[in-house]
Amino acid sequence: PLLAEVISIIPKRFLLSDPLPVLFPSAWPPGEICAFNIQGLESPFEAVVLNGTSGEGQLRARGLVDCESQKEYTFIIQAHDCGSGPGGAEGKKSHKAAVHIQVNDVNEFAPVFRESEYRAAVTEGKIYDNILQVEATDQDCSPQYSQICNYQITSARTPFAIDRNGNIRNTEKLSYDRQQQYEIQVTAWDCGQKRALRSVSVRIDVKPVCKPGWQGWNKRVDYEPGTGSKQLFPKMHLETCGGPLSSARTTVELQTGHIGKGCDRETYSEKSLQKLCGASSGSTDLLPAPSAATNWTASLVTDSGRDSELIFTFDGRQAAKIPDWVVPQNLTDHFTIATWMKHGPSHGLRAEKETLLCNSDKTEMNRHHYSLYVHNCRLVFLLRRDFTQVDTFRPAEFHWKLEQICDKEWHYYVINVEFPVVTLYVDGVTYDPYLVTDDWPIHPSQIDVQLTVGACWQGGEVKKPRFTQYFRGSLAGLTIRPGKIESQKVISCLQACKEGLDINSLESLDKSIKFHFNPAQSILVMEGEDLENMNAAVRKVSYINSRQFPTPGARRLRISTSVQCFGEDTCITIPDIDAVVMVLQPSEPRITISGAERLTRPESDFGAAGGIALFQDLHIISTVTRADAAAARQTGETPRQPEVLEEIIHNLDYCDILVLGEELGPEEESLQVRRGALLGKHLDATNSTSGMSVYGVDSMSSYEQVIRQVRYYHRRPAHLTERRFRLTCSELNGRYTSNELNLEVSVLHGSEPGEHVGHAIAPPQYMQVRRPSVVHDLSNHNLAAVPSAATVVIVMCIAALVVVVVLGIYRIHLTHQQEIRLEETAKEAGTSWDDSALTITVNPMEEAGSDEEDEDEEDEEEDDEITSAESDYSEEEVDIQLPKVERQSRKGQNWDKARISY
Questions:
Q1: Which residues touch 675 (CB under 8 Å, ≥6 apart)?
Q2: Region (Disordered) spans which residues (predicted)?
Q3: In CATH terms, is domain 112-207 a member of 2.40.30.90?
């Protein structure tokens, strides 16, 4: 047999004897149908055969069918023929057909109120939008008959009204003296216009005028930096004017949007923070502090009122071109873009794109290779891949739509690119793009690209290249890190806040109090059923700032409270509290660096492999003024005790060694520090022709150890006269800076043996007298200090020498005849000048003026002329400082001993 399609109908309610008007029309070849079999024992239906020849049958209910018990039935039915063998043993079955029956509802139930009685309390003299809400239900199964469509107050002449949702309000101000309690009756109708069988009683108590709210709190709370956690409301309690409360919910919000980047964060430089948080190295800071080396941010507007945080403000007219030598050139399939951003809604109906970062063609065309921009409160990241082997569509634009983009608050955005997957982190929370669009790859060309911040460079397709798509908002710490992506742990560390709300003695908090902090700990929500426990919990709320030098100023507090009576109904209104936490001015540290201000070394030291150490005796200390003296100074009072400087320990974030005067010649000179000196420290170093910078958040002692190992190297020290350097150190990215330590480095040039002092004598500066055998052995010795007694003797000798020279010159001009006689006399008397044992070294700041071959030859001659008297001093070096005699010529101006008369 073949079973025809079953017709499904929607009956109402059926008894066992009620047939279902479902027929199975004839669709079989000749033969007898003996039965219909319903599979499913739980089905309250049966099928009977009406005509075995035609195959007609009928479904009917075997029991009560109720919509509230079951709305739908689905079962399988199958037909059986009578069979052709003896007794029908060879009967056949039809295919199985599905039957779906849906039961219609009838409006048999009336609405019933959830509560047997409702109560509420109101204060006199007020108009309430909602005093309480009554609620009724209906047991019918269909939406038409089960929903409550209307409520009605049946009591006559009452000053109350009720809406379709069961909310009761008063239509006039109530008076406690006129009537202290109202009792009204409320009924309900379902959407089938069936009324509740019994009305519900609602009692509303009128309370006299009271001022519920928090009592015993101060509008201003002073916070002394470095004191840890401080209770904000040690004596506060909630006044409910006698109303019984079933629960209370209090929210304490610390509003710090005006402090730096949303709260009091450590305002170290971006590189220092990344080092401190363990971020991968190799990031490029696109918005550094303006300086001689980073001058592309000099034209941008900075917000200087943010605790020295480097915040750049863009008003739709500023942009900066990033120099080619700064732009990362190796952006692969893995890189990270991170920035702080504060942005509000765009102006105008047709908002334009606002570009944070853009890399476009510098000339000829206007292709955007990658960019990050805001458009209609959406953040869009564009990444056009270069053409490789296959010219196919690839993911190119990634869109995010978030409330944070236009809420005018600071947020930390990190875009991790693992092409083709791009993930956005906002304040440490992950967001996947809601839209990703594809585009063709960019074909290679010889056109240079231009990276810009604050707008996009349009170098082609226009008559005059210009900026376009300007950004309007604030940015800080915009960095690109090629080759690696940041972990969520590092991202959370970079945006962590240093101030927030806290709870003192958390272990003493009652177990019935539920509390919750937001991730930044700027919002605290507490809930409880007991009023006294809630009061005790609020008194434990504290403010904490873990920064050693927090940003001074006001932090606004707002406390909002809602209380419940009889379940979920609000019984009284608690006014909000606005208070201020005033963070006092911290004791500012005075960072002092000290060391030698003048350094003189022989030229052989400069050319040695290690160069010379510039700051071997460097010392860095930090002091603060005692707190009571500082407080007295703020209030204008006379301090009880004289000011005392106390030494403190804290971190530094960078020290700069700046070259004064001409920059370093990259081919001849450099500043160097061993990489091993940085191991085990949170420090790194960069150098250029302008100097060296050691940066990272670390202790003053670590900075001392590293800077003491900074060495200056010069390949040709003979061409060097002097170099001047300046050392400065900083804490909190320049908020606190040290004094300037200026160091002047002088070169002590080697003397030329065999030369003698010329006729012209300049004002003496200094003179060195040393043995010729050790003239060139200076690399391992410093210049010895001259004892005071020796200085007097040397000065007297020089004075006598000058007198002799003057007298000799005078006699030369008197008579030429006496010269020969004087010479013979001098030879006979054995008083000839033996200059082999005395070398007069000229000013080491002047060039030697002789080539190396002449100096070597003369040195060899002087070595041969060492006398026996000098050999007694062969085991120690004679190093005596004398006033300098200026050299007039390279050669040929030695003393003519025969022409000097004594």
A1: none
A2: 826-902
A3: no
